[in-house]
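Comment thread on ticket #2218

A.B. wrote:
> Attaching the input chain for the structure job we discussed in standup.
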Amino acid sequence: MYLNKLRGPRRTPAPLLCGLLSGLLALAGCTSQADLRKAELADLAVVLPGVYANPSQNLLILNLFVPMLTGNVLYVRETAADDPRRVFSERVWILDVSSNDHIVATVYALEEPEHWRGGAENPELFRPMLQRDLRLLPGCELVWQRTPRGYSASSRSSRCPQSWRLEGEELSFSAPKTTGGTGDGFFHFVRQGGQQ
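C.D. wrote:
> Ran it. Output below, let me know if you need it in another format.
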């Protein structure tokens, strides 16, 4: 209640105050969610990179410093365990927090993979990379989220179906049934040595 000198005591409209407070709380909640996702993204960018292996494959996830690209840039390369020159897959993931507060890895192929071939051994080769050096793989975006045991991700579309799980030192990703994954449909890897 406040005093209006011309009309006497007057009550503040309760619905107006409630609406104003609800709006402020909702805005604070959005900011908290955005901050939470940014913190989770920063954590994921630290815990995900590394060298992972299973008896038939090696998987390298490498943080890149690429000044001309925005977001956290990762190089993801899958090779044969017995011959690292046999490259099965090379991708660039750019992780960022989306406008709807999800951690999203946008997945790209390299336009000229042979140009970047030595990048796993010398990450400085990626430094001059530009957006035009990448080819977007539509439908392959991965939405990451924190789980009680680590992180998981799944694709947004059936065009490029895949799932990833990072639990401690173990990383696994789903594979089409015809490519020889384990009985659960996942390729399983264990981190080798220290983080990259």
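A.B. wrote:
> Thanks. Noting for the ticket: The radius of gyration is 23 Å.
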